[in-house]
Amino acid sequence: MQTEITRQKDGAIDILLTILWKDVKIKYDSVVEQAVKHVVVKGFRKGKAPKNLAEQQLDLERMWQQTLEELLPVYYAKIVQQEKLQPVIQPRIQLQKAAPDNDLVVKITTAEKPVLKLGKYKKAVTILKKASKDKKVSLDEILGIILKEVELTLPVFMIEEQTNKELSSLIDQAKQVGMTIEKYAQSKGLSIEQLKVQKKQEAENTLKLEFILESIADEDKITVEDKEVEDFFKASKESLSTEDQNRQRYFVTSLIRRRKTLQHLLD
């Protein structure tokens, strides 16, 4: 395994990974060997046909895809451990060179928690609340002020990934009510391009707020007690086993902490 790591100005981390063909071949052969056990060839019992005949029944493209799916996470985990990286997003994988009898070359893009400066956001929020006089300031107004005050640059690819995720979700929602994404955009008085720009801005704000709220919670020492997590599970309509609760504990703790942080900003 060979790696070349480049840190971009926007915070993205590009990893050029080269895996020797002999190592790729070992994994590929293992995937094929497992697959032929389930192949049925006329005249033979399941998994008992000669390997050359069984392989003819396989989707070789699928075999290569499965090889990569099993191989790359292992190498990525090794790189993360060796380089002491702390990724906060699923990596983007781009094949640079993938052909039989050749070393596999892959570009992996990831990112760690961005550095941000909270600045004088508290002063800006206080001014906003005082200026509103008797009118209660909404959470959206407060978050809008915070987004303007806090200095934070996100990797372009991270925003792209979040934008694509939100657009995919929107397409699914539109399909459920019998609409195309084009029709949805028209119903909002937007072109497809305008909709994409809008979703990109929303995606960027969503990501920024995620990191900003976490930093505010750290700075103001907002914590979550075990009892709060237990009460959350008890109040849930869904009956979860202890194993499921343990599996969801980190997510629930983060959710409660975020809610407490938002309430803290409103108070």
UniProtKB/TrEMBL annotation:
Belongs to the FKBP-type PPIase family. Tig subfamily. It is found in: Cytoplasm. It comes from the Bacteria. It catalyses: [protein]-peptidylproline (omega=180) = [protein]-peptidylproline (omega=0). The keyword Protease does not apply. Keywords: Chaperone, Isomerase, Rotamase. It comes from Candidatus Roizmanbacteria bacterium CG22_combo_CG10-13_8_21_14_all_38_20. Gene3D superfamilies: Trigger factor ribosome-binding domain (3.30.70.1050), Trigger factor, C-terminal domain (1.10.3120.10). One of its GO terms (molecular function) is peptidyl-prolyl cis-trans isomerase activity. GO terms for biological process: 'de novo' cotranslational protein folding; protein transport; protein unfolding. Residues 1-131 form the Trigger factor ribosome-binding bacterial domain. GO terms for cellular component: cytoplasm. PANTHER family: TRIGGER FACTOR CHAPERONE AND PEPTIDYL-PROLYL CIS/TRANS ISOMERASE, TRIGGER FACTOR-LIKE PROTEIN TIG, CHLOROPLASTIC. Its EC number is 5.2.1.8. Residues 135-266 form the Trigger factor C-terminal domain. Its main location: cytoplasm. This is Trigger factor. SUPFAM superfamilies: Triger factor/SurA peptide-binding domain-like (SSF109998), Trigger factor ribosome-binding domain (SSF102735). It is an enzyme of class 5 (isomerase).
